[in-house]
Amino acid sequence: MPTAEPRAGRHAALALAGLALLAGASLFVGAAPLSASALLADGEGARMLMLSRLPRTLACLLTGAAMAIAGLVMQMLARNRFVEPSTVGSAQGAALGLLAVTLVWPAAGLAAKMLAASLASLAGTAAFLAMVRRLPVTQPLLVPLAGLAWGAILGAAATFIAWETDLMQFLEIWLNGEFSGVVQGRYEILWLTGIFAAAAYLLADRFTIAGLGRDAAVGLGLRYERVLLLGLLIVAAVTALTVVTVGMIPFVGLVVPNLVRMGAGDNIRAALPLVALAGAGAVLAADLVGRLVIHPFEVPAATVFGVIGAGVFVWLIVTRRGHGA
After folding, report:
1. Where are the transmembrane segments (predicted)?
2. Cα separation of 237 and 235, whole Å?
3. Which of 223, 282, 213, 233 is nearest to 115 (CA)?
């Protein structure tokens, strides 16, 4: 019987191969035609590739990998597999923070917007975890319901403020992610998500222990509150980076970790690279579908993945309800 490590290695190899195929297709699919012969024939094709297609492809990969990892961390902290940043108020909190800084300091730079979005996302996520602690552990399906309700409350507040201040267009961009506007010079901040992904990998064992609950984790010698704070910072920072740069892609952090763990098991450290690869591929595939379904026009990647992810979310709840979260 194959051990977990060789099995994970095979899964990673297959994921890398699939990701390479998707990335190659992404470079040549779009409203404007681009082919390998065009790249060799003149410089216009190469400019399009470097200025638009390559940045867009990289933005999709970085966003998908980061959001999938953030979702896995969120699930460990909440001790529930049916949560992720877009369903527990993290993304809505980031949008509220962006609204606040836009109203108070319209000329704020990217760093100030990032800080405001991160702090607001951190507050929204921490409030959700505080609520979760009051829910009975024997009713795991209450957790995603509470998260959806909390996210709806924050989303309604953001919508009201945006409506009253004529900022609805900005709110739509922040909460409905898409990649058509990604060009060279407008996505590079997403590379920072790699730092938080690396931090999640280094802390994977601690997150696993924290997922046992506070009493068990403290009994095993874990500094539970510190690990919880570090996990919250990772989730909030990744969410803020995504919302500020390309907007939120729903259900990535919920669907991808669940599907990966169904095949790769519950070894979080071993699953993290697979989760990152699968998340990157899933978002890139959604973006490709959005480019092709009504070509030469586009459907936002968030819309495509939202439809698919919602269906998978319901399927996961129905099929796993007898096994807990």
Report:
1. 56-78, 90-108, 114-132, 141-163, 189-207, 227-256, 268-289, 301-318
2. 6
3. 233
Q: In the chain, what's the furthest Cα-to-Cα distance?
A: 66
CA atoms within 13 A on the CB side of 124: 37
Tokens of 189: 């901040």
- DSSP code per residue over 176-221: S---TT--TTSSGGGGGHHHHHHHHHHTHHHHHHHTT-HHHHHHTT
Q: In b/e form, how buried is each residue of 278-299, taking b as 16+ CB within 10 angstroms?
A: bbbbbbbbbbbbbbeeeeeebb
Rounded distance, CA 24 to CA 43, Å?
A: 19
* 230-249 residue pLDDT tens: 999 999 999 999 999 999 99
Query: Closest Cα partner for 69 from 224, 269, 226, 228?
Result: 269
Inter-residue contact 191 to 111 (CB < 8 Å):
no
Answer yes or no: are the C-beta atoms of 255 and 283 closer than 8 Å. Answer: no
Whether 155 has a pLDDT exceeding 50, the answer reads: yes
Q: Write the CATH number of the domain with boundaries 51-323.
A: 1.10.3470.10
Q: What is the helix (H) or strand (E) element at residue 289, kind and residue range? A: helix 268-292
Q: Which amino acid is at 274?
A: L
Provide the pLDDT for residue 325. Answer: 45
Percent of the chain with pLDDT strictly greater than 90: 73
Whole-number Å distance between alpha carbons of 276 and 66: 7
> Angle, nearest 10°, between helix axes 224-245 and 110-132?
130
Say how far apart CA 12 and CA 252 lie, in whole Å: 18
What is the rounded distance in angstroms from the CA atom of residue 240 to the CA atom of residue 161? 19
pLDDT over threshold 60, residue 54 = yes
Residue extents of the structural domains in the chain: 51-323
Q: How far apart are CA 121 and CA 126, in angstroms?
A: 8
